[in-house]
Protein 1
Amino acid sequence: MCGIVGYIGEEQAYPILIKGLHRLEYRGYDSAGVSLINAKGELLVYKAKGKVSALEASVEGKDVSGTIGIAHTRWATHGEPNETNAHPHYSQSKNLTLVHNGIIENYKALRAELEKNNMTFCSETDTEVLVQLVEYMMNSHHCDLYTAVQLALKNVVGAYAIAILEKSHPDQLVCARKGSPLIIGVGKSATGRKEFFLGSDATPIIEHTKDVIYLNDEEIAIMDRTGRLEITNLANVKQTPQLVKLQMNLDELEKGGYAHFMLKEIWEQPNALRTCIRGRLNMADKDVLLSGIIDHKDKFINCKRIIICACGTSWHSALIGKYFIEEACQIPVEVEYASEFRYRNPVIHSDDVVIAVSQSGETADTLAAIQLAKEKGAFLYGICNVIGSSIARATHSGTYLHVGPEIGVASTKAFTGQVITLALLGLAIAKEKKTLSDDMFHMLVEELQMIPDKMQWTLEHNKGIDEYAKTFTYCKNFLYLGRGYNYPVAMEGALKLKEISYIHAEGYPAAEMKHGPIALVDEEMPVVVIAPKRGNYDKVVSNIQEIKSRKGKIISVVTEGDTVVKGMSDYYFTIPDTRDCYVPLLAVIPLQLLSYYVAIAKGCNVDQPRNLAKSVTVE
Ligand code: F6R
């Protein structure tokens, strides 16, 4: 949540910061702000409520010069989204400005203490407490900014990524992190001198440099114009910066001709999944090679149980993973909401494998859940998309999705990437445990290889939905039903619709409908039924009949060639036939398209839905 961008070098900072803020806007868009030190040594701050474009409009005609600056796009936690609560925040003397991502949990106690020492506050935010605390430390300990930050952060409980400017030292930029990501980009300006970029993820940095340093928890960095970069931890122990190359291309961050990132990411899925399985499926031997488990086979072969922790869409893919792994590997799998798991003293044994599934790799609850599991001795495996993310680094091993950056707030290609990665993991474990016959194993490998082509087919054959979606503009509720592997797909379809079109939707196991939700069904109620000609097909057909006899509108997802369910439906989507366990990879696509086009018909901002942000780095 929230995006931070920073720059120190020889270029004008403002254009770099604004472009960076646009790239980071998917992380939060309640307000935006920028702070610069100009050539006269003035510490300037400009802020605006709303999007980055509002900030741009508000600075027109004003002085935005300076070769050092920090900027922020906010997802509000403490204090409503307005200009006063927007970052950057000044310290009382206006010698410092600070931007912050995260939550300071003990900010009330700190604020009360600072107020006793005659410090006054303008905003309701925890962030202003942080900048005042740093200034208080500078004054009371007569120390420099760097030392003051160290002292201040020792008193702070919570998560933070911060960047600070000091008016009296216009040639240095200080930043720190704990629990919220922060990346330093190391570039070269036109004169060959080092310049530094800061980002709460790599997206604002990539167009300037691919050389980055991922700051670790409780590390503080200082960068200056001479090209000096020093990192220490809170205990003042010097750290050696590890320079790594970013594996990302700029065009992955552009819409590439699509109206929205979400639509681009839906259409990207066949190629994204081809990249995900490349090198992991060996078709000559019909084999699966997952480097993440090669050195840890014993952990998976001997484990008594697998626990998967995740949130939101990732929790849905985890549930599909559970069905697959239990069926293929005969290992019991529990799927946990990370936010519940971390607070209920769960029973975890040293022979448990705990898997974290997270697109961003930064979700605070998922990170805390695996930290708890680590303390209890479990083996940790991460399934993340963002390379170098906190969860990827906190786990013992893992597999990256490699589906490319996901910018649309509503997750699409990460979901299918997670499902296919969990299937690869299940197959790799099944191979080691010999829980599948050779024939079955080979057949599942062959079929998995065909999924990207079948996804392409699904996209090409379900194009008419944009017109039909207009019918639902005035709907208040939707019901989504599926059985077995498709029950999590029903929940995922409902979540997509809720998130971006603000229509209430519920995903249910189809058979559970008669235990409650059927009471909601009337002629106004669209019911989306995932009804492939597989598994419990006949039972799903009965469920559809039950809905029809109560005049509910049926929108179905059917297998190509099916005439029965088609005939019973008001609208249908077609998918190619595949094995039960892979149907979610195809069935979710029309549901993504349905939610997208309903949201478009309602005039909603698809890529930046209200109240949501991409990466939930706060509890
Ligand atoms: C829904 C969505 C969220 C995320 C959830 C977890 O479209 O994107 O529900 O799935 O916030 O995020 P990650 O996967 O980054 O841990």
Note: The radius of gyration is 26 Å.
Protein 2
Amino acid sequence: MHLFDEIAKKSHEQLVFCHDEVSGLRAIIAIHDTTLGPALGGTRMYPYKSDEDAIIDVLRLSRGMTYKSAAAGLNLGGGKAVIIGDPKKHKSEQLFRAYGRFVQSLAGRYITAEDVGTTVRDMEWVRHETDFVTGISRALGGSGDPSPMTALGVFEGMKAAAAFQRGNESLEGMRVSVQGVGAVGRHLVDMLVGDGAHVVVCDVDADNLAAVTDKHREVQVVDIDAIYDADVDIYAPCALGATLNPQTIGRLKASIVAGSANNQLAEDERDGAALAERGIVYAPDYVINAGGLINVANELEGYNRDRASQQVAGIYDIIRDILTIAKDEGKLPHEAADALALRRIAGIARIKSHYIGMPTSRRAGA
Ligand code: NAD
């Protein structure tokens, strides 16, 4: 691998390798773009087979965060970190504190949070060594579990997609399938039932299913694979990635896809086009599931739940704008989302080029 070629390919700014002999820390921090502000993105812990795999993953994930923050209207850039190791075997206080010191050494260019393989507790160790960590527990004044906010964003984005498609945002009487009733899916079901929607769910975990059906007797359960054939208006993937693919798209009866899962399209171009050909409105995943990110970003200004909820509810307008751009400019929705993010970055880069003298205070991202 030619490292600088790899970094330059998608215009990353910085790649930081962190090593601590005593704790065994091997971490890589990638900063993709800081035009809008400090690069925010979680720390993933995973037993990568090679350093190269870890580098490719952290470069890909950090770039995704640039687009996600930009589309969500946040004053944040894109970054991500990976710790090479098995989260079940290699965690220790020393490891996370050593990592925290490296994060601190970047002086705020990168702000971290939990991600796959790391927990709020790990981030509390990180926090002993750095100011630049978010997603802390509510007990310590943080925003706590982001899932309810992610669900709220999905719910709002779903209503925007319904309004776009049928001129009416109400989900009352609509049939919605929710694939996966874990942390996000179960909150989404609460909101859908509360709004008068007919809900169909599936999950591989019987306990998670029971938690939902005990609470809402009217919710219908279908087999894992039958979810793609369910007679519904809206399909909400809230479990796995790549569920929109040539094997599933033709089976969908839904005319809207709006869910929290990451990387819903197995292949962006092919599957995005296949949905459009069938007249299915797709709410781009990284936009509609940004509620958790907006929530943790709120911690940076002193967490306030009402303000965070209001900002998350703004996902309604963003999804509406993206679907409108897609229609007006003949783009697929995921292309329109990227275009919206890039336009915002270019616009802010332009205004930041104005010389503003010698200000006494500087806003975030200055
Ligand atoms: P989770 O692990 O709590 O829930 C996922 C649920 O899906 C579990 O109940 C699991 O049993 C179920 N599941 C797994 N395989 C399945 C299958 N084949 N069919 C049906 N159900 C299956 O995760 P979560 O936090 O609720 O996140 C759900 C999705 O949303 C993930 O893709 C995640 O990356 C994404 N996401 C979550 C957040 C958040 O705030 N939690 C934010 C952004 C994106």
Note: The longest helix spans residues 51-71.
Protein 3
Amino acid sequence: MPTRDYQALDRAHYLHPFTDFKALGEEGSRIIERAEGVYIHDAEGNRILDGMAGLWCVNLGYGREELVAAATEQMRQLPYYNSFFKTAHPPAIRLAETLCRLAPAHLNHVFFTGSGSEANDTVLRMVRRYWALKGRPEKQWVIGRHNAYHGSTVAGVSLGGMASMHAQGGPRVPKIAHVRQPYWFQEGRPAGQDPEAFGRECALALEVKIQELGEEQVAAFIAEPVQGAGGAIIPPASYWPAVKAVLARYDILLVVDEVICGFGRLGEWFGSVHYDLEPDLMPIAKGLSSGYLPIGGVLVGDRVAETLIEEGGEFFHGFTYSGHPVCAAVAQRNLELLEAEGVVERVRDEIGPYLARRWKALEAHPLVGEARSLGLIGALELVDPESGERFDESLGVGTLCRDLCFAGGLVMRSVGDTMIISPPLVISPAEIDELIEKAHRALDATLAWLADTTTDHQEECLP
Ligand code: PMP
């Protein structure tokens, strides 16, 4: 079917996630038809380097026949059965065991979900249930961070700190507070603050909030090791040690959202390992199956698991697709491949450091105020070359740069004027060179567009 026919049907019937429906209808969507390795192909025959691994999830890259085979075999054997009502099946049991072996030692149980959002809904119900079982039902407040993303369900939106999401959909789940994010470039740098002092100040904000709410009312703190959707925000080195020190002074659960950072993104199996955190609960999804099928879960630490098991009775919570056998079989095979091929170690020791060197060099570009990366996640902060300050957001420089990237054969996402990459973990050095070259060209094109003040010509330059 020709692209324009797909676009017409798309416009007529399909409401896309995180999309201005009307604007997209007018523009028409790009139709992606197939993919292999680190490349996606659109219906027009363009081959595009996927610098975002889909949506931060295709860790093993596209086209892995082993995952196709795992799904096919499992579909033939047992396409569906649930694990309600005292039943289970081998794929989910095996996956639970594998996850607990790979996770830090004190995490020995898992609750399966269909997505990261459902994982965070589970987290919210579980932490409040835990404290109720401990005889402290008043401990209900959960503290998250501004600009955090924890999903799109009502609990996910409430735990997250995205102002644009909070503004839609009516009242949120009560008793969720937010504290400042450790985003030095945006919040520390303009004030001329030293990054490490800024990191400590952000941790202090958590302590202030705990005291304000009263420790006896606070159930948990939730955060990503590195904030992904918020802008690939890598906290200053001082931040996590200072947060750990705060948490050590209070009896509050730590929830580390590993939906993006888990499964090798930061060069360890979990971001918690990189930052030496001991989470009580760890929501996971995305890279768990390399995005081939939808599956998520919550890894549960011994302290919470023992209470839920020994004192809890029935936990009235679960999803039709919790531990879906086909998704579990694919996730299991995905983890086996990540292990057998040493993918995570390669991110830490080889390809992560390689990306870091090449990425950092983009700071020499006049549009780039900061280039940061850790493992295989990275961000560029776009700034006005004249002033070194951020552009007026309404100019849409980040969106322009993103569109120019796409037109030049690279998927790089924009969050405001922050450009983000999170490529498949199997990306080669030559493919990183290609990514950098394409990013450089898109930056040059963005700069050229900005330099040309005649609107007519600017429109001509648009892809
Ligand atoms: N937590 C984090 C940190 C995420 O990045 C996301 C998705 N981008 C989610 C939760 C929600 O996951 P899902 O889209 O699978 O519901």
Note: The domain at 31-63+342-461 is CATH 3.90.1150.10 (Aspartate Aminotransferase, domain 1).
Protein 4
Amino acid sequence: MCGIFGFSGKQNAEEILLQGLKRLEYRGYDSWGVATTKPENEISLRKEVGKIPAFDSTQKHTSITKTHNIGIAHTRWATHGGVTQINAHPHFSTDDSFALAQNGIVENYQEIREELSNAGYKFVSETDTEVIVRLIEREYESILKSQKENETNLFAAICSAFSKLEGRNTIIVLAKNSQEIIAIRNGSPLVVGKSAENEIFLGSDYLSFANRTNSILELDNNQGVIISSRNGNEIKMFSLNSKEHGEQINFLPVEFKTTEMIDSTVDKGEYADFMIKEINEQPDTILAATSYVEKDFSELTLAAKAAKKVYLVGCGTAAFAAQQIAYYMRKLAQVEAVELKGYELSSYREIFGEKDLMIAISQSGETADTIEAAELILAKGGKLASVVNMQGSTLSRLSHYKFFSRTGPEICVASTKAFTAQIAWGYLLAMGITGKFAEAKENLENASQAMQTLLNSENLHKQIESVVDLSLDKEHFFVLGRGLNFAIALEGALKVKEISYKHFEGFAAGELKHGVIALVQKSTPVFSIVSHDETKADMLSATAEVKTRGATTVGISPENNELFDYHVTVPNLGDLAPLVNVIPFQLIAYSLGKKLGNDVDKPRNLAKSVTVK
Ligand code: M6R
């Protein structure tokens, strides 16, 4: 959801802010805005609906702002209020003395808005964000009644207003008179970077400025920073002691740390879209995700063996990876592991305990529902492990055992390479628990080569195109999987749904006769994922049952079968079959989406990082 960026330095702020926003665009992409200023100047605000443009120095507005060297910016994924220029952030104070952008949802915005409206405050947008702006104004006015006007009053008003917000909110404020950026984090992420030239960057993730510095300052919840451009970009870091005592501010030592350099390349290279680039990176990324030595897993292995129960938690695609990993833990390592959706926690609240282990799976490490689950297990005294792709993200910072997918940035909103990286990691963990770490590594090497051969295969692309042509004028599709491939049926269906906007539904093949078969009519496309495992015979029976009722069958399988009307050939990889079985769905999603004229990297209504509940 939403991305925040801030900059203070000697360069043209608008140019740097637009570049930063572009790198954050994956977090939300319906509208955007930048606010910049310089001493003795008004704040210049530019807000637009649509995609973030490349910086263009010839545009008229840039001549006004090109000397501005401090500013804030925001890319929006609308929650409260439609996609309009007025609702885009940043939002101005009534006297234009500050501008504010937010990432999160003010859960008590209705109460605050009503209270402020009754007190005479005027609102111009429909957003929950504007409530924060007006609240700061009210707090400022009440501070003024008891004190003389001074520049720290706005800071005090911001802290006071922030303490009254409910929900996970991170805000960034540009103050005209003091020439400062004031930012406070709660829930939604915020990372500060400092370059060798003493430029300061603030971003919703480290990736947004990873091309400029790897010296970072991570903020915990209820911590914030003040960046003063007038004082040579001096940084003050503070914490608000508790939500109840928001005005109680403690200043903290500022300690930047050098983080592992990540592959920060955010370009498509030779590819037309990030999605197809990322699909093609998978032979490498499954190896990067499993480039651990056995010792790296020893503590987690002990914790998994000692745990009363292991919970694998995620949302969306990451939940399907969690499901696949739980399957591996049970099947390959005989560990009692269950998958759990981050947003379906309520019945577990009293069940989690100190003997449990949670393994959180997330590309971003910032998914609000997954973080809530992680916080709950920690509060119950349990252990937390995570496998995330983004360095410095909240989940990894919360974890006792931290692992990284190391796939490089995944920009396409639909997850592909992060998914296969996560399940490859889970396979290594499960095999390692039973002392087969070296064997798992070898199997993963072979899987990587098989994946590469598959992606290079002309036959595969021909088979995919036949299935895509079949699918163009159909609306409802079913995907059947079982055992080893149950999670792949769900993920495969999600992938095509996200990119083609067609109704793909994944089911456990065992469910078919219990109801799902009622949906099958003449020519309904039904995909069956059939591997060489103990479910093969049942999968073929399920395929026969839908074919008998008129379905057009598509087999995803190492070999063809007379039951398949269409066949997509995948290699036989034993327990690692899920790694290649998901690829046909990724490619169908891509090709179908392109043929239908959809934006495959930025599908409608979706955001890459779901940081609100
Ligand atoms: O960053 P996370 O992996 O925690 O994100 C979880 C889901 O929001 C994400 O997988 C989502 O389902 C993607 N759109 C899937 O393609």
Note: The longest helix spans residues 437-456.
